[in-house]
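Batch 3, record 17
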Amino acid sequence: MSRLHDMGGRFGDGPVVPEAADAAVFEQDWHARALAVTLACGALGKWNIDISRHARERLSPKDYSRFSYYEKWISALADLLVETGVLTSEDLTGESGSSPHDLASKALKADQVAGVLAKGGPADRPSDVPVLFAPGTKVMTRAIAENTAVDGGHTRLPSYVAGAQGEILRLHGTHVLPDSNAHGLGEAPEPLYAVVFKASELWQHPEHPDDEVVLDLWQSYLAPAPAGREQGV
Amino acid sequence: MPHDHTDHPHALLPPEPALRVKALETILTRKGLIDPAALDEIIDTYQNKIGPQNGASVVARAWSDPAFKAALLENADPVLADLGFYGRQGEHMVVVENTPNQHNMVVCTLCSCYPWPLLGIPPGWYKSDAYRARAVREPRKVLADFGVTLPEGTAVRVWDSTAEVRYLVLPMRPEGTEAMTEEELAALVSRDSMIGTDLPKVPA
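Prediction for the assembled complex:
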């Protein structure tokens, strides 16, 4: 019911290995190229950030676990380019010509880079979905951390927080819903909240009784907490 | 949008990752879909222009200027935009303050969300399975991997960046820094201290 990218709380990964403050930004030259090619292809306008995240998540479990970070990026990018019809399989195997592409006029030029990166891509949108929860309200997350519209679809509700009780910490405004936007079903903006959970609500053996985890969760991931469950946060 | 399938097109490219990137870059360049000079510009931006020095200057200013700090914690976006620290992967910023009672730590368990305009491209460990898996469940053991031990009375609040909101930790100002300039203070602020896996350097 989950995919490998949904790894919060997983056991067995071993130590985190810090890096020196002066370590290179890109450990290998091809890491930098992979990032830059991916960002540049975004300018072609054939997908959005949620579609591209889902493309990485849809790598087969075998590929997801054996690929390094930027291998996931470049492989998911190749998949997306073919799925969206920008390239063909023959293009990837080098069996097609190199005539200019219909989308070539959209290619990101060097003198546009600074402007595009500075402009960003804000995710807040006006919405007529009413705000249901105020800070301090106790809420429950959905019991099943899956996309409700698309089987195996994209969601940003991690499985470790499914069915847990938390408390609304703040309202971030109304944001694009990734569960919809990743599948071409529209931006469907709705209220987005920071929700705080006691570590003891999530883990059998929390490290400390006062520790907490905060997640940004869309309103449709949440329901009012049932009465009688007031021992939460 | 196509969904799961078994014949992933990426398998048509060379398996070795550096060659895979090179092959795709070459194909896209030949078709006029990417411009190598634009790639160089993107890389130069994140290698040389945008990095943790941006975040450190914000922290140092917050330590020095109470009104700035109050505005930053209340609504970071306009404050950061005034400083020019707005852009891709930093469109919606929230700054969270460490106190003696609460230590903040930031992770993205689902991918690698990170405040690029303030900290640049995330380090390898931030993107690692170990950090993504463990930070939410055992933050104190993760901090121990960084050589950080918190006082027993300090609670840890871990922020899992599941949306397009990006988080920056405002560390506590070290003792003995009262006479320091903003520039001197900024030099004490490590990248990791703004993610929450380090504490600012204490001046000698």
